[in-house]
Amino acid sequence: MEINKINSAINTEMGTNKSNRGAVQPLKVSAEVAAATAVVSDDCKLIAHGKSRLEQLPDVDMAKVAEVRQSLIDGSFDLNIDKLTDAMVLQHG
């Protein structure tokens, strides 16, 4: 059978390499790969810096929330509909 011939050829080849199978071979690293360093662009550095600064800020301005809450309680909250609609049109088109 041809399958046995292939298998016997593979087994013969594997038998010659049995003595090397248990030994760990050191990985050869070229000087170019060993000396390679990561280069980070200025844009990436700027984004990372901005991200860290944003993470330090609170999600909600609690002072502003307290101010609006107090103005609602004492009735001094001024809702200018014209100004609000102008801002919405400017923001959303």
UniProtKB/TrEMBL annotation:
Residues 40-89 form the Anti-sigma-28 factor FlgM C-terminal domain. Residues 1-22 are annotated as: Disordered. Coiled coil: none annotated. It comes from the Bacteria. The keyword Mitochondrion does not apply. InterPro entries: Anti-sigma-28_factor_FlgM_sf, FlgM, FlgM_C. GO terms for biological process: bacterial-type flagellum organization; negative regulation of DNA-templated transcription. Keywords: Bacterial flagellum biogenesis, Repressor, Transcription, Transcription regulation. NCBIfam families: FlgM_jcvi (TIGR03824). Belongs to the FlgM family. Responsible for the coupling of flagellin expression to flagellar assembly by preventing expression of the flagellin genes when a component of the middle class of proteins is defective. It negatively regulates flagellar genes by inhibiting the activity of FliA by directly binding to FliA. This is Negative regulator of flagellin synthesis. It comes from Shewanella piezotolerans (strain WP3 / JCM 13877). The lineage of its organism: Bacteria, Pseudomonadati, Pseudomonadota, Gammaproteobacteria, Alteromonadales.
